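Quick one, tokens below. Sequence please?
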């Protein structure tokens, strides 16, 4: 790796630079970032590659700074077409679902463009909207709702923009759209299916009586699942609906009892809001034992890495040795945990 080629004297100077800058937290990670930059120089990296690397890191820094003050506020990202007009029923759906979630304290994240993105920003209002726009030569100027507020950042690259549209949110609502919307929706499903992202509620919301998402679901069943390209139940983690009320219930209900998860070595720790009973834990083992590599689902005190990070120490926990090939089914376990009588 490139950092292995960095002379010890240079490494020491990097430490001195961090000292001079007053960096005291996460020094090991900051040092790795600096070392990677030096390594790119040592690798005789092409100028275009360096420009991409520099711009991407700069964009991520700006986005991290934008989201940081709202770290503890739940967020939902709304995807949909930039071409949807304000008289379209889909526009109204986006306004209403964003307003309903904002009323419950959720911030609404959008791509900050026109169409569905503007509708969602209108519904949430300027103080509860965050926009991550893309700089394109022909469209996607920030809409007036977001552009007038400081809660906006512009990106050059789609991949950095998509990262920020997904990284911070605890729920996703996709309304009908074109290639961009489909790209975002399928990446969400891929991240969930492969366990590369924590389980999150995903809703495919249509206009009343609309057939856009039901048509997609039929295609998934008749071609992807039938062809063996996905599991037959892979779409079960998604709610397809034309109801704003059902959308809001799906997004908020996913967090009714389940709070968060953390991998500690090979063990998965689920943090909950309510302590389950012995009978409930037994029922979970009976129903989801096939997800485990060994052992049982059982209560746990905070583990050492959690205590070291002061990570949600006040919450009850369940610990399991989960088969890594079964992580795509975590959403099923979480939904049953949310329905436990102890969480009522």
């Amino acid at each position: 790796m490139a950092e292995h080629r960095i002379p010890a004297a240079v490494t020491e100077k990097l430490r001195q630079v961090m000292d001079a800058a007053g960096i005291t937290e996460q020094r090991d990670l900051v040092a790795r970032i600096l070392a990677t930059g030096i390594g790119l120089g040592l690798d005789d990296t092409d100028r275009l590659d360096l420009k991409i690397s520099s711009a991407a890191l700069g964009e991520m820094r700006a986005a991290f700074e934008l989201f940081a003050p709202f770290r503890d506020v739940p967020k939902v990202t709304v995807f949909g077409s930039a071409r949807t007009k304000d008289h379209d029923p889909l526009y109204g759906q986006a306004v209403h679902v964003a307003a309903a979630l904002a009323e419950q304290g959720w911030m609404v994240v959008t791509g900050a463009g026109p169409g569905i993105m503007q509708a969602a920003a209108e519904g949430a209002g300027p103080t509860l909207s965050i926009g991550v726009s893309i700089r394109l030569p022909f469209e996607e100027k920030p809409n007036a709702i977001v552009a007038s507020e400081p809660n906006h950042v512009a990106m050059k690259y789609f991949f950095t923009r998509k990262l920020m549209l997904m990284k911070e949110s605890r729920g996703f609502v996709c309304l009908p759209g074109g290639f961009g919307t489909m790209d975002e929706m399928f990446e969400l499903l891929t991240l969930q299916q492969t366990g590369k992202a924590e389980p999150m509620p995903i809703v495919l919301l249509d206009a009343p009586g609309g057939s856009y998402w039901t048509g997609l679901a039929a295609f998934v069943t008749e071609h992807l699942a039938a062809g063996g390209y996905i599991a037959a139940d892979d779409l079960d983690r998604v709610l397809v609906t034309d109801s704003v009320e059902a959308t809001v219930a799906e997004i908020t209900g996913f967090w009714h009892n389940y709070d968060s998860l953390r991998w500690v070595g090979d063990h998965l720790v689920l943090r909950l809001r309510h302590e389950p009973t012995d009978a409930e834990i037994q029922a979970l083992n009976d129903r989801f034992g096939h997800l485990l590599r060994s052992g049982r689902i059982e209560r746990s005190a905070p583990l050492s890495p959690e205590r070291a990070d002061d990570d949600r120490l006040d919450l009850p926990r369940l610990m399991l040795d989960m088969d890594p090939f079964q992580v795509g089914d975590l959403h099923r376990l979480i939904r049953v945990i949310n329905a436990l009588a102890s969480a009522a």
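The first helix runs from residue 8 to 21. The longest strand covers residues 292-299.
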